[in-house]
Design a protein that fits this description.
703 residues; alpha+beta; Calcium-transporting ATPase, cytoplasmic transduction domain A; Calcium-transporting ATPase, cytoplasmic domain N; 6-stranded antiparallel beta sheet; 46% helix
């Protein structure tokens, strides 16, 4: 966001682990002078910053005009009970009655009803337009106010009432569209239970979820929701996180496993130590982050602002010139009326809301998929991506090394090789040790274990000296051919010796995620070229890339090398970078769009990224790209329609082809169409139809 139009960007706060997505101060509209903004802190209430509705600039972060702070889990009422629509309803009904009486020849009653319609409609925008004018801000509301006053001065009370009714209705519908787009965020907050059970020294007590504090011990029974983020300390069960992360399959959890707020416990009882306060957990942070995104504008939003901002004073000047021309040619009445019609015809109402409604709808919808988009700009750029750089460890792979293969000498069995290795690895903290121990739960005891840092371990097992280490320290000997084969398949080879003789090899590999190959295929079908960037060795990287279907690999990359590689890719096409580690942060910040695997990602990765995933399914990538492309198409269509309305109506108004009533009707119908089309961006692809919906075929815009 440029500093000259909006003031300097607010620097980001550092984040802690566990998807720490903190709210920054809400930024003001790009075409309006900045106003003081409260720093938003995530809480259980969905806060709606006050915006008095300068329509020239498009709705701000919250579109509810003069609205106080939203209540907790506020739900948009049905349209027939929405008091915000009441002035427009009164205006419309009395306007229709006025015209009916006028056509019946009852002039005075008709005029009374038309005045009531005018006052009811004007009530929704005239006071705000006057207040903004006092502060030096011009808006479409001012244009409509001038047009209405002029029409009354010329004796066209009915036309002025029609203008007020249609404009107030369009504004009310815009507000409802914004509210509808944000309902998904309120739904996220509703996933947090009202109360939770907490274990105390005196026993279990029930307290409000908002009162939970970090390190509290939650007791979550079968079928209950988790009140805040935490780690299981006792019990085993499965948790359904589909509403939070988008994962469709329940996940088995036990002691040491993290559980997000809002997930549903399965059949077992869990004791969970809270890692976040009840008012500051992953769900409230997601909501706060998406709210921030509403306040930041992308390329198309800035384009709409750049057009709308100067257009308002230009329209006022042109209308004034038309009126002056009437006095010059001696027909002031006719040309003054045309000046008012021109004023309305060139008003950028539809243009002002063409992008914000679409962006808010699309970003809110994406959050339900587990895709958190930090800004409107990031959302738009997401739809331009043609290349994607994928980190290997933790992104394409599980980041959980596992024993994949075991090769043994003829006189020693596979199980015995694992048992011997596990016996000496018991006290090791090396990641490979965990993989070996998991593969051999039953193992003999080892004594006198000594670690040779960077090489391996030596110990006594059943009286024999056992050494376990890498191929640089221990020669594979007669199993050298097997060691070469395992390495060629992307495995780390561990050699096991007994009394100086090689008895076996253990192949360990961080396996690909099961959906990795399908994701790469989907990306390729969308015309997005995948590239693997990894700090791992070339042989391992190429083996895993071949399994995933990636043909271009850049291995043994330092953090600076990854950033350089992304910079080079950017010269060819817009590029996304996907990563989860601290070493990925420079590349994430360099890319057109940085995408962090938020749940397991480091704080640096999440902070540097433009998009964060709350789930682990890589198929969210093509889904997110398809969602963003569709949103861009809708935005482009909306901007084109809004400009076409202005360009088409201007000459018709200038030369008297259309009167005030006709121009108002066309203009406001177009605005309603733009709003309805923008709300379509909230529609998201269903997981069951991923392959069908992610074909990359452009979808024609329709209303």
């Amino acid at each position: 966001m440029s500093e000259e139009c909006c003031g300097p960007d607010v620097p980001r706060e550092p984040k802690i682990r566990r998807l720490e997505l903190r709210a920054r101060p809400v930024e003001t509209d790009a075409c309006c002078p900045p106003e003081p903004a409260e720093t938003s802190r995530p809480s259980l209430a969905l806060r709606a910053p006050v915006d008095d509705g300068d329509a020239c600039c498009g709705p701000g972060p919250a579109s509810q005009r003069e609205a106080p702070e939203a209540t907790e889990h506020e739900v948009r009422p049905p349209w027939w009970r929405d008091v915000a629509l009441l002035p427009s309803a009164i205006s419309g009904i009395t306007l229709a009655m006025g015209y009916t009486l006028e056509w019946s020849g009852l002039g005075v009653p008709a005029l009374v009803f038309q005045w009531v319609a005018l006052i009811a409609g004007a009530y929704t925008f005239v006071p705000g337009a006057v207040r903004r004018l006092v502060r030096g801000r011009l808006g479409v509301g001012l244009l409509m106010t001038i047009a209405a006053v002029g029409a009354v001065a010329l004796g066209h009370v009915g036309e002025a009432a029609a203008l007020a009714f249609l404009f107030s209705l369009a504004e009310a519908l815009e507000d409802r569209a914004m509210d509808r787009a944000k309902e998904g965020l309120r739904a996220l907050l509703s996933l947090i239970p009202d109360t939770v059970r907490v274990s105390r020294l005196s026993g279990d007590v029930t307290i409000p979820a908002a009162d939970v504090r970090e390190l509290d011990l939650l007791v979550v029974g079968a079928g209950e929701r988790v009140g805040t983020d935490g780690v299981v300390v006792d019990g085993r069960s499965s948790v359904d996180t589909s509403a939070v992360t988008g994962e469709s399959i329940p996940v088995a959890v036990g002691p040491g496993d993290a559980v997000p707020a809002g997930s549903i416990n399965g059949s077992g009882t869990l004791r969970i130590e809270a890692t976040a306060d009840g008012r500051d957990n992953s769900l409230t942070q997601i909501v706060a982050l998406v709210e921030q995104a509403h306040a930041r504008k992308g390329e198309r939003a800035r384009l709409a602002d750049r057009i709308a901002r100067p257009l308002v004073p230009i329209v006022l000047i042109v209308a004034a010139l038309v009126a002056v021309f009437g006095f010059v040619v001696g027909d002031p009445s006719t040309w003054l009326e045309r000046a008012l019609v021109v004023l309305v015809a060139a008003s950028p109402c539809a243009l002002a809301i063409a992008v914000p409604v679409t962006v808010i709808s699309a970003i809110g919808s994406a959050s339900k998929l587990g895709v958190i988009i930090k800004s409107g700009e990031a959302f738009e750029q997401l739809g331009t991506i043609r290349q994607i750089a994928l980190d290997k460890t933790g992104t394409l792979t599980r980041n959980e090394p596992r024993v994949v293969d075991v090769r043994s000498s003829p006189d020693v069995g596979r199980e015995r090789v694992l048992e011997l290795a596990a016996a000496v690895e018991v006290g090791s903290t090396h990641p490979l040790a965990a993989a070996i121990l998991a593969a051999a739960p039953a193992r003999p005891a080892a004594t006198g274990v000594v670690e040779d840092a960077g090489h391996g371990l030596t110990g006594l097992v059943d009286g024999a000296e056992v050494r376990v280490g890498n191929t640089r320290w221990l020669s594979p000997g007669v199993l050298a051919g097997d060691a070469e084969t395992l390495a060629a398949e992307g495995m780390t080879v561990v050699v096991v010796q007994v009394d100086g003789e090689v008895v076996g090899l253990i192949g360990i590999r961080d396996e690909l995620r099961p959906e990795a190959a399908e994701t790469v295929r989907m990306l390729t079908d969308q015309g997005i070229r995948p590239v693997m960037l990894t700090g791992d060795n070339t042989r391992t990287a190429q083996a895993l890339a071949a399994q995933a279907g990636i043909t271009e690999v850049r291995a043994e990359q330092l953090p600076a090398d990854k950033a350089t590689a992304v910079t080079q890719m950017l010269t060819d096409a817009p590029t996304a970078m996907v990563g989860d580690g601290i070493n990925d942060a420079p590349a994430l910040a360099t890319a057109t769009v940085g995408i962090a695997m938020g749940v397991t990602g480091s704080a640096a990765a999440v902070e540097s990224a433009d998009v964060a995933f709350t789930g682990q399914d890589l198929r969210l990538l093509p889904m997110a790209f398809a969602h963003a492309r569709r949103g861009r198409r809708i935005m482009t269509w909306n901007i084109g329609l809004a400009l076409a309305i202005i360009i088409g109506l201007f000459p018709l108004a200038l030369f008297g082809v259309l009167g005030l009533a006709g121009v108002v009707l066309v203009h406001e119908i177009a605005e309603v169409v733009v709003i309805l089309n923008g709300v379509r961006a909230a529609r998201r692809p269903a997981r069951a139809k991923t392959a069908e919906l992610l074909s990359g075929t452009p979808e024609p815009a329709r209303v």
